[in-house]
Amino acid sequence: MLYVDMTHPRETDPLLPHNSNYDSGNDGFKRLRLRHHLNTPLSTHHTDLILLYCYIITGLLDSSAVFIWGSFVSMQTGNTVYLGLGLASQISHPKHSSNSDAGGGNDDRWIKSGISIASFCLGSLIFGAFHRAFSPRKRWVLMASFGLQIACITCAATIVSLEKPSKTSALTWRVIVPLAMVAFQSSGQAVISRVLRLGGLSSVVLTSVYCDLFSHPDFVSGAALRKDVEERRRVGAVVCLLAGAVMGGLWARSEVGLMGALWTAVGLKSVIVLAWFTWREDGGDGAVQA
């Protein structure tokens, strides 16, 4: 009979015993923690910084889009003016509309503006419905919202990278599709400002910000900036959008053009997704804090 000594270890014995029940239980605990982490409503404390950061992205995309495509992708007030000018040209000089200028350097600007407006409105409808369907401030909901925005800009950037449009590019799907996708995703930022209860920082417009900033009774004395957090937010919005516009203009005038601006926006929005993943959970601070 062969005798096997079980009291002494052998070279082939594992250093630690394998416990499948322990491993499966540990994996289950990790999944449970991740699920809880993703389903946690987030604190609104300092979320104004996220929206101010979004103003940089707005300036970046709008300045480069206007320079190359001739229309805005976020600020729809300007697009509405371009659309009105184009419609007026069509009505007053329909036979010569091909030679008319709807407000800037190419005769199809009003069509691009209309596409941008329609895409932005559609995006507002969809992003708004998405946030209403789920708890709007859950971590995964905010991450998914910006993830969809990133996906749209990535698709647009890919098309632009392959086609390399210019100011003189014909109005084909190579212009229409990326323009529509970037305008569509821009509405997501505006919806987020409502979700975070910071409607004054829509991240896509500045007209009301300028009005509220300069009409403040303590603006001239300078006391408003020292005492009022809303005033500091308004100044931050102006500075951030201006910085983004300068950045977008530099990209648009460089060799990489609109492509560089779009890929930069992808990187900037990816930072926001990471921020939401690490953002602290709601501790009952329902009100927006400074």
From TrEMBL:
Alphabetical UniProt keywords: Membrane, Transmembrane, Transmembrane helix
Keyword set includes Lipid metabolism: no
InterPro entries reported for this sequence: DUF1275 (IPR010699)
TM helices/strands, residue ranges: 50-72, 110-128, 140-159, 171-192, 235-252, 258-279
Domain of life assignment: Eukaryota
A Pfam family hit: DUF1275
Protein name per its UniProtKB record: DUF1275 domain protein
